[in-house]
Write a structure and sequence with these properties.
- The structure is a single chain.
- The chain is mainly alpha-helical.
- The model has no long low-confidence stretch (mean pLDDT about 85).
- It starts with a helix and ends with a strand.
- The chain has helices spanning about 5-20, 30-40, 40-55, 60-75, 75-95, 95-100, 110-115, 130-145, 160-170; strands spanning about 155-160, 180.
């Protein structure tokens, strides 16, 4: 890759701002988001490394930011896990009252944790009577009420008509419908 110092200086601020944006404590970093960031800025990292080998000097602030970006790129998955763990802990504390009152009975710790993990997709698998419907209801209400996700961005599907009907009835106020896989 051929590069110039000017290319790095032009691209770096945008990459750094994106890095800071996704690593806020009030943000769950999904797998796809981390992967997309890594792929998007792969060439910039290569350019930075080339410039560094040339001995180019930056301001102390720019140098620190470059090192921060490079540090993230060394093990983004570990940093993602650390950041997400902090996010989950904060959400569990912040939303305790919500989890205690979102359904007829308070949600258990495992249900609460599965609700605040905001991966690209969520699959609830468990035995009969274990609280799948309550977990799904909690997740949907959490996304809409606490995370301000538009209902039309949520797809709720289940295996049986009975479960789909029950969820749709319980979701009547949120303008969401639950469907079966076949529907």
């Amino acid at each position: 890759i051929y590069t110039t110092d000017k290319e790095v200086q032009n691209q770096f601020p945008t990459a750094y701002e994106e890095l800071k944006k996704i690593y806020l404590t009030d943000h769950y970093i999904s797998y796809s988001e981390c992967k997309q960031f890594m792929e998007k800025w792969d060439d910039l990292e290569k350019k930075i490394l080339i410039i560094k080998t040339k001995g180019t000097h930056y301001s102390k602030e720019m140098h620190e930011k470059i090192e921060e970006l490079l540090s993230f790129r060394k093990d983004p998955w570990k940093l993602r896990d650390i950041s997400n763990k902090q996010f989950v802990e904060n959400q569990l504390i912040t939303n305790k009252t919500f989890f205690d009152t979102v359904n007829a009975f308070p949600l258990d710790p495992q249900q609460r944790e599965s609700i605040v993990k905001l991966e690209d997709n969520c699959l609830v698998v468990s035995s009969a009577g274990s609280g799948k419907t309550s977990t799904m209801m909690g997740k949907i209400k959490y996304l809409i009420q606490q995370r301000k996700i538009a209902p039309e961005r949520i797809l709720t599907i289940t295996y049986t008509r009975k479960a789909a009907q029950e969820l749709s009835e319980r979701l009547s106020n949120s303008n969401l419908k639950c469907l079966t896989f076949h529907a």
